[in-house]
Structure formats: structure tokens, C-alpha cells
């Protein structure tokens, strides 16, 4: 059975634009998924990337155009300048880690719900009520927001180290069990072809 390690940030617009397409690909090929939230800003610093606010204006202009085009392509609402970005992604990351351990809900819905909260709903994902609402909406116990904070922090840090060690430098980033790496929401079709044995 194929497996996908999914490295992402709940602050990443490109992770938001991935929607749940990767999960649909995984289901089509019987692949399992491990969700690995990380701190993408810290990842940039360690892997030669540049945080958005430090990029040259020409890069930022293209980024803005590309985000709008991709949102239209996938029929997704998008606010280019969210009211609560950047914010603290740790609470949602810990909640996702706790939910993955607990089981019983829809992890894809949980992850995408937090991303939509940032990029479409003008919500602050650092707020307890937003974290709890996301858990509840995805079929998880909202009390998971309060449990396992220490283990969540440890796993979050471990995800970061694993990402650097395995060649991850952005989000979303998908690594198969055969170490095939796919960076970006625009490579999900390639991931699909790979799992089908065509690429």
C-alpha cells in the first residue's frame, strides 16, 4: 500500500489552494497519509528560502497574480491580504497532531478548514474558539485543543527536523514511501500519475 507524508503549514496559501485534492488522489490509489504540520517560515530560513515580506517586489507581484489565478482555476474564495496573517500556526498544528492521534474524524476537512479560516473567512487560527470550532466541524472532540499540548509541541518540532532532513523546503510538500518528492499544489496531478505508475 503506498504512503504519502504530507508536510504543510496552516498559514500557507498554496496549501490552502491544494484543497483536498491530494486526499482524493490518495483515496483513488489506496494510499495512506501522515499529516506533518510544520513552521514554514522557520523552514525557509533553514533551507535557503526567503519569507514573503523579504522578497523582491517583482516576486511578490507575480505571487499575487498567481494566487488569484490558482484560486479562480479551482473555484476557491481567496483574500490576498487576510486580516489575520501571519499569525501563530502552532495551536492549529497541535490540534491536527492530536486529532491524527485520536482518530474518529476527518483530517482532510480539519486541515482545509483551518486554511480556509485564514484565506477566506478572515478568522484568526491562533484563537481558541477557532481551533475548537475546526475540530468540532471535522468530527473531532473540541477538547483535543487542550490535550496533548506537550506532545503536540514535540511532534511539531520533530516534523520540522524531519522535513529539513528529507529535503522539504516549502509547503505543501508530498513525499511518497519511495522517496518521490512533489512540491506545491500544482504538482498534485504529477503525484497522481506517479501513484498510477505512469510517471
List the helices and strands and how they pair.
Blueprint: E1 3-8, H1 13-18, H2 21-28, E2 32-37, H3 40-47, H4 57-73, H5 90-102, H6 107-119, H7 128-137, H8 149-165, E3 173-176, E4 181-183, H9 188-195
Parallel strand pairs: 1-2
Antiparallel strand pairs: 1-3, 3-4
Helix pairs in contact: 2-9, 5-6, 5-8, 6-7
Task: Outline the structure in words.
With 199 residues, the chain is an alpha+beta fold. It has one domain (3-195): Glutaredoxin (3-Layer(aba) Sandwich), CATH 3.40.30. The protein is built from nine helices and four strands. The protein has a four-stranded mixed sheet with strand order 2-1-3-4. A hairpin with a 4-residue loop joins strand 3 and strand 4. Helix 5 crosses helix 8 (149-165). The longest helix has 17 residues, at 57-73.
Q: Quaternary status of these chains?
A: single chain
Topology order in helix (H) and strand (E) letters? EHHEHHHHHHEEH
Overall radius of gyration: 16 Å
Would you state the CATH class? Alpha Beta
Strand order of the largest sheet: 2-1-3-4
- Overall body shape: globular
Low-pLDDT residue intervals, each spanning 5 or more residues: none
CATH topology: Glutaredoxin
Helix content: 40-55%
Number of helices: 9
- The whole-number mean of residue pLDDT values reads 96
Main sheet, how many strands, which sense, barrel?
4 strands, mixed
> What is the CATH superfamily?
Glutaredoxin
What is the end-to-end distance?
A: 17 Å
Amino acid at each position: 500500500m503506498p504512503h504519502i507524508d504530507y508536510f504543510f503549514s496552516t498559514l500557507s496559501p498554496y496549501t490552502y489552494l491544494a484543497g483536498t485534492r491530494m486526499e482524493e488522489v490518495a483515496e483513488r490509489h489506496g494510499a495512506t497519509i501522515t499529516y506533518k504540520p510544520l513552521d514554514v517560515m522557520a523552514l525557509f530560513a533553514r533551507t535557503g528560502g526567503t519569507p514573503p515580506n523579504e522578497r523582491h517586489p517583482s516576486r511578490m507581484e507575480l505571487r499575487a497574480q498567481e494566487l488569484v489565478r490558482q484560486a479562480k482555476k479551482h473555484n476557491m474564495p481567496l483574500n490576498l491580504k487576510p486580516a489575520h496573517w501571519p499569525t501563530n500556526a502552532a495551536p492549529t498544528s497541535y490540534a491536527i497532531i492530536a486529532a491524527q492521534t485520536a482518530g474518529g474524524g476527518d483530517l482532510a476537512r480539519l486541515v482545509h478548514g483551518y486554511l480556509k479560516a485564514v484565506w477566506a473567512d478572515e478568522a484568526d487560527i491562533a484563537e481558541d474558539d477557532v481551533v475548537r470550532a475546526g475540530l468540532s466541524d471535522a468530527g473531532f472532540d473540541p477538547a483535543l485543543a487542550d490535550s496533548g499540548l506537550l506532545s503536540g509541541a514535540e511532534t511539531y518540532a520533530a516534523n520540522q527536523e524531519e522535513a529539513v532532513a528529507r529535503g522539504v523546503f516549502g509547503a505543501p510538500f508530498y513525499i511518497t514511501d519511495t522517496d518521490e518528492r512533489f512540491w506545491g499544489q500544482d504538482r498534485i496531478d504529477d503525484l497522481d500519475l506517479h501513484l498510477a505508475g505512469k510517471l
